[in-house]
Amino acid sequence: MTLKSSDKRVNVPVDINWKRNLLVLWTGVFLTCASYTMVVPFLPLYLLQELGVSSSSVNIWAGTIFSVTFLGSAIMAPYWGAMADRVGQKKMAIRAGFGLAICYWLSSLAQTPYQLLAVRALTGFISGFVPASMALCSSTLPTEKLGWGMGWMQAAVASGGVIGPLIGGYVSDWFGMRFSFYVASGALALATGGVIYYVQDIVDSAARARAKRSVLDDLRLAVNNKKLLYIMGLFFLVQSCLLIIQPLLTIYVKELMGGMEGAVKASGVVFSLAGIAGIIAAPFWGKTGQKVGFAKTLFFVMVCAGLTNLCQAFVSDIWQFGLVQFIFGLFLAGAAPNINAGIVKTTDPLVRGKAFGLVTAAQQSGGVVGPLVGGFMGTFLATKYILVFTGLVLIITGLHIYFTKVRAQGDKGIW
Fold it and tell me: Alpha-carbon Rg of the chain, whole angstroms?
């Protein structure tokens, strides 16, 4: 099978099993992203009860330890993306998968907050599984399945990031907080084993040799590539809006429930609703973007997600909050697959690892900035109004997409 040249793709061997690639890589990306965030529900308690942090400084430690993983990933993603173009996306995915498994095992052994901070920083620096998997999957998908397949892959990213707290909340409640790290380590090791035995890479070594450029060269190209910069900016904004509530979630849920009993578990459940919605909706929105235009679909889902978040001003109990979060997730799930389509449309497959690395850096930077902004705004604003603020940001962004991409360019599915 040969993929259409309009997508700038290399020839795919007839025996490539793109469905199996998609399934295995989806599982690995989901587990990787879930592992990043599974500590959210119990991290403050873990610091207080297991690592001896005082109650007066626990919020600072929790925000720093959570954000440092995203910071390390943002710094290293372009480098690992460039390395993937040199040695192969599959090899980079295997390196990152086993490296992350070791890091989570080390996290379970931490005895001080400084040790946990160091391991979480190492976790970010050793990452690279997601951009390698995205690039590999995009190269093996048939043209007519591009939007649908990338929708599923982005569903893995979004849903893993928000279902992680649900997994962490229940595992820590049933087996203890330290055991959660063992679960993450074992799951990543199994997923990486699946990549070794079942995933196929398609770009040959000669092609990779032609793609070699330094990371600094890639960054210079990115600065001059307005389309790629725009895509990076969108990913940064979406991730920031999605994660801005994370450091405030448990306290907000406690307020809605009228007490702390069950708040940790409930916060994991509520936040995971957006991830469940992502699994349901992302493939649909990716397919819709392929049919009616990626920018048109992106405009629609951003505005609808923003309008949904404005409803947070009227939330008065945990059930209403959960419903709004679920509807918000249904719409915001359509953002990433349609943004990802822009990467595939505007980059050569031989350097797609670099492109996905740069975009991942922007996305992970949003993972750093979002919680920090949320924590800062939470000192003088009620949580519901912070969510209203993110709704306004999403609406303004959606309107900007409409006037600059849809109305001005008559988008037909190409960025």
Answer: 20
According to the model, what pLDDT value does residue 393 have?
Answer: 93
Residue 166 belongs to some domain of the structure: yes
Question: Token pair 């910071």 is at which residue?
Answer: 71
Say if 208 falls within a structural domain.
Answer: no
Cβ-based neighbour number of residue 200 at 10 Å: 16
Q: Which residue has the higher pLDDT, 246 or 125?
A: 125
Return the structure tokens found at 71: 């910071």
What pLDDT, on a 0 to 100 scale, did the predictor assign at position 41?
A: 63
- Best-predicted range by mean pLDDT among 61-75, 133-147, 387-401? 387-401
Residue that is written with structure tokens 């949003």 in the block: 366
Give the C-alpha separation, 301 to 151, whole Å. Answer: 14
In a domain, residue 209? The reply is: no
| Residue matched to tokens 């949904």 | 308
Structure tokens that stand for 70 in this block: 């995203």
Number of structural domains the chain divides into: 1
Residues 6+ apart with CB under 8 A from 194: 24, 27, 28
In angstroms, the CA 180 to CA 64 distance is: 20
* DSSP code string of 266-326: HHHHHHHHHHHHHHHHHHHHHHHHHHH-HHHHHHHHHHHHHHHHHGGGG--SHHHHHHHHH
Specify the pLDDT at position 7. 44
DSSP for 120-145, written as a single string: HHHHHHT--HHHHHHHHHHHHS-GGG
296: domain range? 14-201+223-409
What's the mean per-residue pLDDT of the chain?
77
7 belongs to a structural domain: no
CATH number, domain containing residue 72: 1.20.1250.20
Cβ atoms of residues 253 and 373 within 8 Å: no
